[in-house]
Automatic annotation (TrEMBL):
Organism classification: Eukaryota, Viridiplantae, Streptophyta, Embryophyta, Bryophyta
Keyword Endoplasmic reticulum: no
Assigned protein family: Belongs to the glycosyl hydrolase 13 family.
Annotated SUPFAM superfamilies: (Trans)glycosidases, E set domains
The keyword Metal-binding is assigned to this record: no
Glycosyl hydrolase family 13 catalytic domain location: 258-695
Enzyme Commission code(s) on record: 3.2.1.68
Protein name per UniProt: isoamylase
Amino acid sequence: MAMAMAMGVGGHRSSSAGAVFTSQVCSRGAGVGTKVAVRVDHVVKAIKADDGSGNGKEKNTLGWKSTHLSARPLTICRVAGVSSDSANTETESKEEAGHRLCGPPLRGRPLPFGATACEEGVNFAVHSSGATAVALCLFTESDLQQGVVTKEVPLHPVFNRTGDVWHIFLPDLQSNLLYGYRVDGRYILEEGACYDARRILVDPYAKAVISRERYGTLGEGGDCWPQMAGMIPDLHDEFDWDGDFPPRIPQKDLVIYEMHVRGFTKHASSEVEHPGTYIGMIEKLAYLKALGINAIELMPSHEFNELEYHAYNPMMSDYKMNFWGYSTINFFSPMIRYASAGNKNCGKEAIKEFKSLVREAHKLGMEVLMDVVFNHTAEGNEMGPTISFRGFDNHVYYMIAPKGEFYNYSGCGNTFNCNHPVVRRFIIDCLRYWVTEMHVDGFRFDLASIMTRASSLWDKVNVFGRSDELVNDTVTTGTPLNEPPLIDMISNDPVLRGVKLIAEAWDCGGLYQVGSFPHWGVWSEWNGQFRDMVRLFIKGTEGTAGIFAQCLCGSPHLYQEGGRKPWHSINFITAHDGFTLADLVSYNQKHNVANGEDNNDGDNHNNSWNCGEEGEVVSIPVQRLRQRQLRNFFVALMVSQGVPMITMGDEYGHTKGGNNNTYCHDNFINYFRWDMKRADPNGFHRFASLMMNFRRMPKIRRFSHWR
């Protein structure tokens, strides 16, 4: 029987976690203004929940307001759709002439999803299969900060719905507005139904999400989770790409640098004008170019809440943060508080800053890869907050057990239902957006094995829309699939097939697919076996020479039989989680006391060796041995066949004091130390830079296949 995992609401994952539950793209032309009157026999019922007062307000607080509409004639707009003269007569009567936010709402169209601008206005479309009532909530920026809705527009359950898609078109919509949805329906947790009209939800397709202005600052009244809203796009908002074109570097030639946007320039020694931002990072791209890097892999830069773990940490005398960002709120929006502009222009300036980063990286011949987290979201388990996906369709977006518990293959409280048809469509749309609109060059998929697991209610009808009259076609939720539909779709998508696709080929449910991830000939993998075997060999573990030699040759024991090439192995020795390279030769045990969890978090198996003495204050012979070991590791990484990946700071020997789980530290522990890089007391930075440029010489990376 499925059991619920005792997890935090949306906490960082533990590596020991088990497999348990826990357009109207607008039509234009003469037809828009042609209307035919139609009498409706029944009362048009607005979305409502009576507060008992009988009084309504235009600016209402974030509770559900009462709106009673009388019966009246409706009109059919032949092109724009079915509409009433107003979707909200109470609001209509209160709006003063010349101060309306929009014209009379129209029916709209079900595709594309999200908010889509055109000359006449904006179309809104969102999926919700079990909703009984939906309202579109509009905000000005000032009203959002005060927690009040500027205007609420009910959607009619017949005229504003096509299948499971609710849609509406607002003509002549005022600029610089934000939006969300209020969704009502059944609230029965045991059945996985979580519709709650008290919440205003973020559209999963919102292109920018606005809440707090600055990174790490609390909301009004000390709120860590203030109301969020999506940016309404402006048709005339343009960005100058200056002829940008993707570098399209052959995968076998890549040298990848895993990095954190904020951590890269936040330390004062970076001396940039806007530290900790996309713009600040641009100032340091030339350094990466000179280092020998031609692909930067950004740790999560989708919208997340850095205050998710906000609590005083007495061990550091500061507050814990969700620094790494592996807890996504919205997959279309860049992290707004990584932008120097913050919320300016409803987030549009933040989008431009991200685009500027990509454009300037391309000018230097560097590709930009994104670390994407389609395995879970910030909403956590059944005790977590309702922000977006849960409120629209809990049982669609998440793997739900029969009694409403959440499957927890991610170790973070919930598991994204990746192979459900609606979720597959969502993920494909999202990836295409980042490639076509934001010009990114590829993706690293966090805990990618979750994307190979069967969705809830898996069967031919649910997944493919047909049964083929097969018997016993149902597969248990979470079962690994040999040909997962999502991976198939990504691999063969005409837009995505040409970008870099990198899988972290395992999950927290025990599924380990290094060497066996379904690949269609286009997927690479983080080679965890390379990491482990190189660590063991260089620290002197007996019996590892043979497998170490295989790793140097591109791991043919993992990839040759499946028809892949050496470059499908992403070779790494360290990553963001775990020891840094310097700590790997300085500590035998983790030292995570600074996290405030009594050293109980983080992995206990690090395959490290301190060279004879624990910590940083050691004898001169041990220091010299450590310097040799650092160079041994770097040489092994750079001469191995496959694609090398180094972690930010390893090139100068950054230390985290033996902490192998620094997810919660927005401080010097995670910041790139430009002063230490410049000092380079042992010459290791110079050595690392020479090795990376040596790696890019044609004779070193000449092998494209095994002989």
